[in-house]
Design a protein that fits this description.
Aspartate Aminotransferase, domain 2; five-stranded antiparallel sheet; Arc Repressor Mutant, subunit A; globular; alpha/beta; seven-stranded mixed sheet
C-alpha cells in the first residue's frame, strides 16, 4: 500500500508512503505522530474507529487497533468508553522532534529521558522508610506491581450507584457522623465478607478507613496505647507497613517466610503479628492449615493480636478458596480489607473487622486522624454491593486477570523458558526467578527502561541477597551498575496444593495458543513454571536461599491496550538475560 489516506470526518490526510509487511503498523504510528506534531490533528480531535480506518486503508483492523494502543500508551492519544479515540491534550514530545522509525524490535528509549525524577517529597519518604509511589512514569509501559487495571474501573456502575445513593440519602448523612463509617456500608461489608470470605463480622465491629495504610496506622497506635511494644511482620513484604508501625511507636520484628507461609514458631516475644495468610506478599504462598491453627493458638495463649491483611482475597484462579483466618477466632484476629485491588486505590476505601476489645481504641484513633472517611464514596460502595454490581465486577475482573496471567505464563514459556514463575495461583503479580549468573535486578530494570518498560527494582520488598551476575555473559555490567524503576526484591515461592478452577477454564494464551500446563486443572497452588512445565515444588523466597535474580511483575496494572506491548518487552529483556542458561 502506498500514497495517502484521509481520516474520515477529520479532513486530515495521512502521508503513509510505501507500506508492506511488518512496516504497516509502524508507518501508521509515524503518520499519526506526525499529524499530531505538526498540528494537522488538533488536541481533542476524534479519530475514526479502528474498523473504519482499517477499511479506508485496506489493512487489518488489528493493525490499526495495535497502532492506536501504542500511541495511547505513549500519550499521543486517549481513549474513553463512549467517547472513542481522540488526540490527547498537549504534546508528549517536542513539536519539531525528529520522525521516529521503529524496527521490529521494541523501540529503545534513552535512559536520560525516561527515569523517574526524585522530588524532595520522595526523598522525605525514603528517609522515613516509606516507599514513594511514582503514579506517572515517562515510560510507555509499566509492569510494576501494586495496581489493578484502572482502565477497567466500572465507571457506569459506580456513577449509577452514586446517583442512587444521593437520591436516597437524607441531609444529615453529610454531617459529622460515626467515626466507624456509614452504617449502610458497614452492614453491606459485613454481609459480603461473611458470604465471600468466611469472615464472622458484626456490623457494629466494622470500621471504615481510608485504605490499608491508614488501617495499619490506626491499629499500631491503638495497640501501642494498650501496652503492646513489639509487632512481628513478614520478612518479605510491603515496606511501608513496618515504617508506619514504627512511627506508631512499635518495634517491628521480621519473621521468615517459607513454603508454608510465615514461620509462626519465630514469633518469640511479639505482642502482635501482621500476616498476609491467603496470598503472601510478594511470594504468593498461602499460610498452611497447621500454621493458621498455630497462630490462633499463639494469640489465645499469649493474649496477642493477629492482623490479617486480605489485600487481594477476591482474585484466586486455580486454588480452592481459603476462608479468612479471622473466621477461626474473631476475638483474636483483626481482618483488614480494601477496595484498592478490587476497584481502585484512588477511592481510599478500606475496612477493619475488629475484636470487641479493640473497637473503642481504634475508633478513637480514627476520630483523631480524620474523624471519618468520605461519605459519598461510602454510600456509593454500599449501593454497588447491595445491587450486585460489586460481585459482577469482581467476577469479571477475576477472569480478566486470569487471562492475563495465562498470557504471561505462555509468553515466558515460549520466549524465556529458563525462568521460573511462582505465586501465580492468585493475585495480580508474579514472581519471576532467573537462573544463577543472570544479570542483576538493577541491570534488568535498567535494560527494560531502554525498551520503554518500567519494572520494579531491588528495594521494593526488602533487600534480598543476589548472586553476582556474570558480566562476561552480557553487556549489562555488574549488579552495582545501572538503575531503574522503583524497587523489588522478593523471591519465588511454591507450595504444592490441590486445586480445581473457579468460574471457567484458564483460557488461551498469547497468539491463541493453549497455555502450557494451564488448562481446566489450572496451574495449581504450585504456581511454578520452567520451560513450559508446571512444577509442584521449587525454591521458596528466603533471604538465605535465592537461586538467581528475582523480579516481581505486576500483570494486573497495565491498561488492556498496553499489556501486549509490555509483555513483548518483558520477554525481550528476559530472553536476552537468560540466553544460553539452563
Amino acid at each position: 500500500m502506498d500514497g495517502q489516506a484521509n481520516l474520515r470526518g477529520t479532513g486530515v490526510d495521512l502521508h503513509l508512503g510505501p507500506l508492506t509487511g511488518t512496516r504497516v503498523r509502524a508507518g501508521l504510528e509515524n503518520a499519526l505522530r506526525d499529524a499530531v506534531r505538526d498540528g494537522r490533528l488538533a488536541a481533542g480531535t476524534r479519530l475514526p474507529s479502528s474498523r473504519t480506518l482499517a477499511a479506508d486503508l485496506g489493512i487489518a483492523r488489528n493493525t490499526v487497533a495495535d497502532a492506536y494502543g501504542q500511541l495511547i500508551a505513549e500519550g499521543w492519544l486517549t481513549a474513553r468508553q463512549g467517547s472513542g479515540t481522540r488526540v490527547a491534550p498537549g504534546r508528549p514530545g517536542p513539536p519539531d522532534g525528529p520522525r521516529t522509525r521503529r524496527s521490529e524490535r521494541p523501540a529503545t528509549v534513552r535512559p536520560a529521558t525516561q527515569a523517574n525524577v526524585t522530588t524532595p517529597s520522595e526523598q522525605t519518604l525514603t528517609r522515613a522508610g516509606l516507599m514513594s509511589f511514582p503514579q506517572e512514569t515517562r515510560l510507555p509501559y509499566d509492569l510494576r506491581p501494586g495496581s489493578p487495571d484502572l482502565s477497567s474501573f466500572p465507571r457506569s456502575a459506580w456513577l449509577a450507584a452514586t446517583r442512587q445513593a444521593l437520591r436516597r440519602a437524607p441531609n444529615d448523612v453529610f454531617g459529622y457522623g460515626d467515626p466507624r463509617g456509614r452504617p449502610e456500608l458497614r452492614e453491606e461489608i459485613a454481609t459480603y465478607l461473611a458470604r465471600a470470605r468466611g469472615v464472622r463480622a458484626d456490623p457494629e465491629l466494622v470500621l471504615i478507613c481510608s485504605g490499608f495504610l491508614q488501617a495499619v496506622g490506626l491499629l499500631g497506635r491503638a495497640l501501642r496505647s494498650g501496652g503492646a511494644r513489639r509487632m512481628a511482620v513478614e520478612a518479605l513484604g510491603f515496606p511501608d507497613t513496618p515504617a508506619i508501625l514504627r512511627q506508631a511507636g512499635l518495634t517491628t520484628v521480621e519473621i521468615p517466610v517459607d513454603a508454608d507461609g510465615a514461620r509462626i514458631d519465630a514469633l518469640g516475644t511479639a505482642d502482635a503479628v501482621l500476616l498476609t495468610p491467603s496470598h503472601q506478599y510478594p511470594t504468593g504462598v498461602s499460610l498452611s492449615p497447621e500454621r493458621r491453627t498455630a497462630v490462633v493458638t499463639w494469640a489465645r495463649r499469649t493474649g496477642g493480636t493477629v492482623i490479617e491483611d486480605d489485600y487481594d482475597g477476591e482474585f484466586r484462579y486455580d486454588r480452592q478458596a481459603v476462608g479468612a483466618l479471622q473466621g477461626l477466632d474473631p476475638s483474636a484476629v483483626v481482618y483488614a480489607g480494601t477496595a484498592s485491588k478490587s476497584l481502585a486505590p484512588g477511592l481510599r476505601l478500606g475496612w477493619l473487622v475488629l475484636p470487641e476489645r479493640l473497637l473503642e481504641p481504634v475508633t478513637l484513633q480514627k476520630r483523631m486522624a480524620d474523624h471519618l472517611s468520605p461519605v459519598i464514596e461510602q454510600l456509593a460502595l454500599a449501593e454497588l454491593i447491595a445491587s450486585g454490581g460489586y460481585d459482577r465486577h469482581v467476577r469479571r475482573m477475576r477472569q480478566h486477570y486470569r487471562r492475563r496471567r495465562d498470557r504471561l505464563v505462555a509468553a515466558l514459556a515460549e520466549h524465556a523458558p529458563a525462568v521460573r514463575v511462582h505465586g501465580i495461583a492468585a493475585g495480580l503479580h508474579a514472581v519471576i526467578e532467573l537462573p544463577p549468573g543472570s544479570p542483576s535486578v538493577p541491570a534488568l530494570t535498567a535494560r527494560a527502561a531502554t525498551l520503554g518498560l518500567a519494572l520494579a527494582g531491588p528495594t521494593f520488598y526488602g533487600d534480598l541477597p543476589e548472586p553476582e551476575a556474570d558480566p562476561a555473559s552480557s553487556g549489562w555490567g555488574t549488579r552495582d551498575e545501572g538503575a531503574g524503576g522503583a524497587g523489588v526484591g522478593g523471591g519465588g515461592g511454591t507450595a504444592a496444593g490441590a486445586g480445581g478452577t473457579e468460574e471457567g477454564s484458564a483460557g488461551a494464551g498469547s497468539a491463541g495458543a493453549v497455555v502450557p500446563g494451564v488448562g481446566d486443572a489450572g496451574v495449581g497452588d504450585a504456581g511454578a513454571m520452567e520451560a513450559g512445565r508446571v512444577l509442584t515444588s521449587g525454591a521458596v523466597a528466603d533471604r538465605r536461599r535465592v537461586a538467581g535474580p528475582t523480579l516481581v511483575i505486576g500483570f494486573g496494572g497495565p491498561p488492556e491496550h498496553a499489556f501486549s506491548g509490555a509483555l513483548e518487552r518483558l520477554c525481550s529483556v528476559l530472553a536476552e538475560a537468560t540466553a544460553g542458561r539452563a
